[in-house]
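Hi L.,

You mentioned the student needs an example of a multi-chain input paired with its predicted structure. This one should do, with 230 residues in total across all chains.
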Amino acid sequence: AQKITQTQPGMFVQEKEAVTLDCTYDTSDPSYGLFWYKQPSSGEMIFLIYQGSYDQQNATEGRYSLNFQKARKSANLVISASQLGDSAMYFCAMREGDEGGSEKLVFGKGTKLTVNP
Amino acid sequence: EAGVTQFPSHSVIEKGQTVTLRCDPISGHDNLYWYRRVMGKEIKFLLHFVKESKQDESGMPNNRFLAERTGGTYSTLKVQPAELEDSGVYFCASSPFYQETQYFGPGTRLLVL
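Structure written out for the whole complex:
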């Protein structure tokens, strides 16, 4: 079974609008971490935001916020005030295992976001 | 601070040949990871080094793949002999010990003809 599901292969948004990229996950481990990475056309993977399973508040980093709904096992990425430079592939990933010791990441298939002027 | 670097950025080889990919992690990062994305598939974990030791190599597809991290600094991933299905993008990532976030390099695009 897929551990990370990104149901939106592609998304379109108008510049300056907000957009939500969906991510659901599956784990029985009580301790896990959730990540979002951005991959522009140049190919590098850029870390955006992290949410730990025990974090009480949703993570925020500038225009990025993570809508963490633990009971629903969802970790949607919200990008506010979209910019043309936000056009890229976005990957949701999960790390299972105890915090404090890095573990492998499991990735979703990604969502291609296109920001229209 | 320099990010994770990978060399080469692209490699085109013929089936049966050998290719060696190199990754230089961020200075001071003990954890080093290799991942791979083949066309149309998810990014998949290959292996994890802590310093020079292999912590987890459960994702290595077969014994044609050999990873090393001599001295706990840079790492190499050798594919010998390369097969068509080895084509894809190979990413390296690093993180400090006891930190969750992994920082990725730009990847090496491997094409096996």
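You could point out the following to them. The CA atoms of residues 29 and 92 of chain A lie 18 Å apart. The first strand of chain A starts at residue 4 and ends at 5.

Best wishes,
N.
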